[in-house]
Design a protein that fits this description.
It comes from Durio zibethinus (Durian). By secondary structure, this protein is an alpha+beta fold. It has one domain: 2-Layer Sandwich (Beta-Lactamase), CATH 3.30.450. It contains 9 helices and 6 strands, in the order αββααβαβαααββαα. Strands 3-2-1-6-5-4 form a 6-stranded antiparallel sheet, sandwiched between helices. Strand 1 and strand 2 form a beta hairpin.
Length: 196
């Protein structure tokens, strides 16, 4: 997923997951092969109908400058999504990291999350800022061997295995040549999960 055609393909996929659906944003967390395996923000789509320029919806260019300039000051959800770009998840840590290892999707509801005693990593991961901005449902899906997709909705969206399968199906054709012939740590861990 490193080439520009793959990058534009990724943006189209993320956009397609939000258009004419209940999902307000889609983020792709890419698995990075380093000394310790991590998932980092690769790209995102945010469906902001209040945006004057519709071309601004599809990605987050110049995120750092926009955060510091106050660009998102009147858009709490845009700010929450932009802040996610700073997160890095270790494989197996936090909800995103655990989904990557287990291969099992997670459906998270704001009302259950807010009323439960939240662990420190969930606060750190920015869940609270998303919920405070109006997000009611977050779904996190592993797309082996690429990484993880995260969607957020302003509505309570009940678990839908068809959506999970659709997300995995649309990512299947995107092949990253760097992992094409080598089993990824995500694939290996799914065969014998270390965290079960």
């Amino acid at each position: 997923m490193g080439s520009s055609s793959s990058s534009s393909g990724l943006r189209r996929i993320l956009r397609s997951l939000c258009l004419n659906t209940e999902w307000k944003y889609a983020v792709f967390w890419k698995l990075k092969h380093r000394a310790r395996m991590v998932l980092t923000w690769e790209d995102a789509y945010y469906d902001n109908h209040d945006q004057h320029d519709p071309s601004e919806n599809n990605c987050f260019p110049n995120t750092l400058e926009r955060l510091h300039s106050g660009y998102y000051s009147h858009d709490p959800l845009g700010l929450a999504v932009a802040k996610m770009s700073y997160h890095v998840y270790s494989l197996g840590k936090g909800i995103v990291g655990k989904v990557a290892v287990s291969g099992k999707h997670q459906w998270i509801f704001a009302d259950k999350h807010v009323n439960s005693s939240c662990s420190l990593f969930e606060f750190y991961d920015g869940w609270q800022s998303q919920f405070a901005a109006g997000i009611r449902t977050i779904v996190v899906v592993a797309v082996v061997p690429h990484g993880v997709v995260q969607l957020g909705s302003l509505n309570k969206v009940f678990e839908d295995v068809k959506l999970v399968n659709h997300i995995r199906d649309v990512f299947f054709p995107l092949q990253d040549s760097s992992v094409g012939h080598i089993a990824s740590p995500i694939e290996c861990s799914m065969k014998g999960s270390l965290f079960e």
